[in-house]
């Protein structure tokens, strides 16, 4: 139990402080989000991959596990939406809530606290895979456009280049301790990610209904259960299996709201689903951590 509290409490504290700050100060999140997306998270990815001892086999297993998990989750959410007779804006929003995990803000942070640096290396691979899904296929799915155009948008983001650069320069010494500067910059990503999450929660109205609960259950309960089964099916290593399940148990990313607003869907319900799943995650994630053996 002490280890569990040591994992959840630091995350909750930083999110809570961001929430309190957001309640007292009307802050514009756009510059902070761009700083995180274009500088801090790429630095974290580059540094993690450069220092990584993760094998190509383990990385491939995680990507395959992610793909199978989310293919099954997509089918389950789509069948449920059709069974309920949801109109296109609503079923698109339901699928976005189920398929877009907060594997960045909360996922990287919680995995680091729960599973250490080796877990973080693997969580970065998952984060990249979920970014492809979210930024590459997400817009095409929501607006009905071409997949190629959406993937080109994804490739404009620095995440993949940071991953490639980190792998290419793995083990290469940097002059003048420049690698320590990159490491320090990357370490800033986790507290800023969590603070941004708290600020976002402070600016979002909390209204929870049946739709939001259903979306949260798909995201917080069904996704990690599917990930667990897929991990067993693929015979993933212990740490890869834990990362796959833990990252799959993350709440809905705020990008589900942003993309619903930009490309199609119900933005109001998407925003409420983000808030509902994030709040409920503080109840479900400790159970997932217990099931994974973090006690």
Automatic annotation (TrEMBL):
Keywords: Cell membrane, Membrane, Transmembrane, Transmembrane helix, Transport. InterPro entries: Mem_transp_PIN-like, Na+/solute_symporter_sf. It is a multi-pass membrane protein. The chain crosses the membrane at residues 58-81, 93-117, 123-142, 154-172, 184-202, 214-236, 274-294. It comes from the Bacteria. GO terms for cellular component: plasma membrane. Its main location: membrane. One of its GO terms (biological process) is transmembrane transport. It is found in: Cell membrane. Belongs to the auxin efflux carrier (TC 2.A.69) family. This is Transporter.
């Amino acid at each position: 139990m002490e280890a569990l509290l040591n994992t959840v409490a630091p995350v909750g504290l930083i999110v809570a402080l961001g929430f309190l700050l957001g309640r007292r100060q009307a802050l514009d999140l756009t510059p902070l989000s761009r700083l995180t997306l274009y500088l801090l998270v790429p630095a974290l990815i580059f540094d993690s991959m450069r220092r990584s001892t993760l094998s190509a086999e383990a990385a491939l297993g995680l990507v395959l596990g992610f793909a199978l998990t989310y293919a099954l989750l997509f089918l389950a959410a789509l069948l449920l939406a059709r069974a309920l007779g949801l109109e296109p804006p609503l079923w698109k929003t339901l699928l976005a809530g189920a398929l877009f995990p907060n594997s960045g803000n909360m996922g990287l942070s919680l995995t680091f606290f729960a599973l250490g640096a080796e877990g973080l290396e693997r969580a970065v691979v998952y984060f990249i895979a979920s970014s492809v899904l979210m930024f590459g296929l997400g817009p095409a799915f929501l607006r009905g456009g071409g997949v190629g155009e959406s993937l080109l948008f994804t490739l404009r983001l620095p995440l993949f280049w940071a991953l490639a650069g980190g792998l290419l320069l793995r083990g290469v010494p940097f002059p003048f301790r420049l690698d320590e500067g990159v490491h320090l910059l990357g370490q800033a990503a986790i507290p800023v990610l969590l603070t941004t999450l708290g600020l976002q929660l402070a600016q979002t109205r909390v209204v929870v209904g049946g739709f939001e609960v259903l979306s949260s259950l798909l995201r917080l309960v069904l996704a990690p259960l599917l990930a667990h089964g897929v991990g067993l099916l693929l015979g993933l290593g212990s740490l890869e299996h834990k990362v796959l399940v833990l990252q799959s148990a993350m709440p809905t990313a705020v990008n589900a709201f942003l993309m619903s607003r930009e490309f199609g869907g119900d933005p109001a319900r998407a925003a409420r689903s983000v808030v509902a799943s994030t709040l409920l995650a503080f109840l479900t994630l400790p159970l997932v951590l217990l099931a994974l053996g973090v006690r």
